[in-house]
Amino acid sequence: MRLDHVRRLSGPNVYLSRPVAIARLDLQGLTGHETTDHPGFAGRLLEALPGLATHHCSAGRPGGLLDAMERGTYFGHVTEHVTLELSGLIGREVFFGRTVRAGGPGDYDVILECPRDEPAGSTVVEQLITLAVRTVGGALAGRVPDPSADLARVAAEHESGRLGVSTSALARAARRRGVPVRRVGDLNLLRLGYGRYRRTVWAAMTDATSAIGMEVAGDKRLAHRVLADAGLPVPAGRVAASPAEALEALRDIGGPVVVKPLAGHQGEGVHIELTSPPEVVAAFASAAGDDGEVLVESYIPGRDYRVLVVGGRVAAAAELTAACVTGDGAATVAELVERVNADPARGEGHDRPLTRLALGPTERALLARQGHGPGSVPAAGERVWLRRNANLSTGGTSRDVTGHVHAAVADLCVRAAATVGMDVCGIDLRLPDIGSPPPADRGAAGILEVNAAPGLRMHLAPHEGAGRDVAGDIIDLMYPPGTPSRVPVVSVTGTNGKTTAVRMIAHMLELDGRRTGMTSTEGVYVGRRLVHLSDASGPRSAEMVLGDRSVEAAVLETARGGIVRRGLGYERADVAVVTNITRDHLGMDDTEDIDDLAGIKALVAEEIRRGGHLVLNAGDPPTAALAARPAVLRRDPVLRYFSLAPDEPVLVEHLQGGGLGYYLDHGWLTEARGDRKTRILPADDIAGSFGGHAAHVVADALAAVAAARALHVPVDVLARALRTFDPHTRNPGRGCVYQVGDNPVVVDYAHNPAAVTAMGAFVERRWGTGGVAAVTLPGDRSDELVSETARALAGTFGRVVVYEDEDLRGRRSGEMTRLIVQGLREGRPDVRHHPAGDLKGAVTSALDMAEPGEPVLLLYEKLQPVTELLDTLGARPAG
Predict the structure, then answer these.
(1) Is the peptide bond before 480 cis (omega within 30 degrees of 0)?
(2) Distance (Å, rounded) from C-alpha 307 to C-alpha 431?
(3) N or C: which end of the chain has fewer CB within 10 A?
(4) Are 185 and 228 in contact (CB under 8 A)?
(5) How far apart are the first and last CA of the chain?
(6) Residues 588-646: pLDDT tens digits?
(7) CB neighbours (10 Å) of residue 35?
(8) DSSP β-bridge partners for residue 6
(9) How far apart are CA 150 and CA 131, in angstroms?
(10) Residues with Cβ within 8 Å of residue 771, at least 6 apart in sequence
(11) Is residue 430 within 8 Å of 301, Cβ to Cβ?
């Protein structure tokens, strides 16, 4: 087998509402082979990966995969399950997999679920699939493969790229509350919500966290002073800039003392309960670092506690115990450490609930003070300390004591957080007992530190006691119950009319007073201003709009290519619009027929919120049929059908059932529910419909009205929006008419059979003749589709100038001209066709061929060269 490539769909997709990776496998010599063709294969594979015995496969029960291999199954399917098993072995918890035929006879796509917040640039899934291919190959070669060494390397990369425990908990808490979550790159930075409700959180630091508070908390000297000035108990201390000053502090304060860095974190460089001058001098050398200064404080006896304060209240509290082992009279210290580290809850850094114990210089020095070393054997029950500072990051453990916090202690911690100016912070303190009032005696209790962006591990999964939903507390602080996290989202898809419908809806929402973000094939707009010029109908553009904090509503053009190649850029739209599903892009991305195309477009209909609105074209059978899809029905949508014809059977039945519909009634755009009708405006009044002659524009207007009404836009605003929807300013490149000398020139992006048929009908209705066409078609369409489009064009136009776009999209020069001409002749044997070298030559030739007053239809691929050329020809907008 050979792995050809892997691509990732980061958003909801046609396979899963969560991210997936799609691996293209070429089975090569295994094409047509099944597992039963290779005796002993399944047994060797199972010996290498015993966990495969529990895989359900399509049987829906453990052992399903084994049954499939015994009956005979193909090797793409086996590779899928091996990859899932390897994923589980490194703690990458994913469960969905599917293998489908693709491309040639030996080509298969293996679709595998990916963790929601795995970085898009991660190579972990590709490495796992590669390892799976090698593992299957080893079993086929008669060996029992051992992937452990390679798997360890993949596991290390997975651990380094996954979210930290705190950030991961915040992501889960947000999703449980329906708040959209996006990880930023490979950082522990999350973007929450959409538009004006977007917030960010970095570990436990929110975008509302005070920068001054962060500075105060990060400077132990300043924090000590601020807390002391507020009358809060802190240990006596002073800053020392030399060993001599540290010894002077020891004499003045009196031992024991604590020596710590001024700006340290996670307990690094902290030395506790020092009494002798040599200890203090050594601690100074360790803690001073580049700054050359340390904080020397009096040692407060008692227990170590961490209290988490969120939004002015105590969210959780934990008693902390420093890293230690307990002897059994037989094992050495090193063996006891190894035994503790075997706990799967322990990992490196902050990726697991607990941190692995170490035996570094700091630990060995403390062991020596206790009369031990790594090779000594502690007595049974003897506790041997590896660290004196009770930090989880140095191997400590926690015990939940939230339910025991005395009110006076809680008040002390809340005051400390407010004094420093933090919305979320961890208060480290030492007390005899957190369940009793803090002693009034000086030095008997004290706040040791105020931690900005505190770790949540000790509260989420304490070593002892119940875990606390502190991540949920932080999310509730950012989004109090009842506070929205999303702006209204309208997603528009279909074969034709997407861009026009999107622009109409956005115009309606803007006139309704909502600052609207819009994506379309011409770019990203926010508040009617172009902010990003590109073909912006994919997920990245959607993310750009939804990440803009000024946006109050989003209207997203959602094209087939973006869905197939990257998935959706949003979750759960409020309104989905499907304009139509007709023949286009067939033969691309394994899309062979209309059913395949409908399956892709259906994702937009399926990915709406429960009770959201679905706008469908009642007159287009593939589109109307989307309403019956199980995944759509599970959303319990409000269906809104539209149709130019009031007697369309799907529409009539829907209205008879009390549903909502939008159609033309005696020339009026009309909204109806059952028998109740509301007139909106005459179709003749729609700007860009040219007195209603452009029927496709009227249909787009009906779709736009249906979507805008779902967002409660008043009828009078809709009418005003459609009357002012000037195509030259609001819808450039779509049905725009210019006057060039004696001839009207119609500029449109039509590039498939249905679109060119609609444009031909418009030209004939408006001018009573087909006139002349100057055309190019995209080179990435199949030969069959190009010919079909050309035949449709010949149905209206007997004189055609053919030119090729600058971007041939993989075609040879002249190839598209030949295909288009061939299709024109098939559609109309007497057609007059003329080749042109480029856009300018095509327009010049078409104008020369046209009689005075005859229309010229210009189909283009890129709009900017068209507008520049028309400017040079002195074209002016016309109606």
Answers:
(1) no
(2) 12
(3) C
(4) no
(5) 61
(6) 667 778 888 999 999 999 999 999 999 999 999 999 999 999 999 999 999 999 999 99
(7) 22
(8) 23
(9) 7
(10) 763, 797, 799, 850, 854, 855, 856, 857
(11) yes
pLDDT of residue 585 exceeding 80: no
Radius of gyration of the chain (CA): 35
**Identity of the residue numbered 457:** R
Mean pLDDT across the stretch 235-246? 91
Residue whose C-alpha is closest to residue 833's, from 815, 817, 855, 812 = 817
Structure tokens at 805: 């776009």
Q: Is 147 helix (H, G, I), strand (E, B) or coil?
A: coil
Q: State both tokens at 686.
A: 């729609």
Alpha-carbon distances of 663 from 245, 506, 703, 755, rounded to whole Å: 87, 21, 9, 21
Cβ–Cβ under 8 Å, residues 848 and 706: no
What mean pLDDT is reported for the chain? 93
> And the tokens for 404?
């025991």
pLDDT, tens digit (0-9, with 9 covering 90-100), for 367-395: 998 999 999 999 999 999 998 777 788 88
Read off the tokens for 695. 């029927």
Say what angle helices 407-420 and 220-229 make with each other, to 10 degrees: 120
The pair of structure tokens assigned to 229 is 């000035």
Q: What is the pLDDT of residues 59-88, one digit of tens each?
A: 788 999 999 999 999 999 999 999 999 999
Task: Tell me the three state secondary structure of residue 449.
Answer: strand
Q: Which of 123, 130, 120 is nearest to 82 (CA)?
A: 130
Residue from 805, 817, 802 nearest 778 by CA:
805
* 558 neighbors 582 (Cβ within 8 angstroms): no
Burial of 716 (0-12, 13-18, 19+ CB in 10 A): exposed
pLDDT at site 288: 87
In terms of DSSP H, where are the helices of 200-332? 211-218, 220-229, 243-253, 277-287
DSSP, residue by residue, 342-398: TSTTEESTTSSSEEPP--SHHHHHHHHHTT--TT--PPTT-EEES-SS--GGGT-EE
CA distance 794 to 800: 8
Identify whether the C-beta of residue 765 lies closer than 8 Å to the C-beta of residue 569.
no
The whole-number pLDDT of residue 642 equals 98
Instruction: Give the residue from 16, 14, 137 showing the smallest Cα distance to 78.
Output: 137
Which residue has tokens 């193909």?
74
Give the SS3 label for residue 632: helix
Distance CA 787, CA 802 (A): 13
Task: Report, in this order, helix, strand and coil percent for the chain, each rounded to 5.
Answer: 40, 25, 40
Which residue matches tokens 């930290």?
164
Which residue carries 């054997």 as its tokens? 377
Helix, strand, or coil (residue 784): helix
Instruction: Say which amino acid occupies 673.
Output: R
CA distance 283 to 129: 50
Contacts of 229 (CB under 8 A, 6+ apart): none
Q: Which helix (H) or strand (E) holds 138?
A: helix 124-140
Cα 544 to Cα 11, 140, 572: the distances in Å are 14, 48, 16
Tokens of 574: 């409020």
Q: Alpha carbon 382 to chain centroid distance?
A: 51
Within 8 A by CB and 6+ apart from 618, the residues are 624, 641, 642, 643, 648, 650, 651, 654, 661
Which helix H or strand E contains 7, and what residues bound it? strand 2-9
Give pLDDT tens digits for 420-476: 999 999 999 999 999 999 998 888 899 999 999 899 999 999 999 999 999 999 999
Buried b / exposed e along 233-244 (16+ C-beta atoms within 10 A): bbbbbbebeebe
Whole-angstrom Cα distance, residue 240 to residue 294? Answer: 5
| Rounded distance between C-alpha atoms, residue 20 and residue 4, angstroms | 17
Which token pair is 406? 């005395």
DSSP β-ladder status, 772-775 and 668-673? unpaired
CB atoms under 10 Å from CB of 386, counted, come to 26
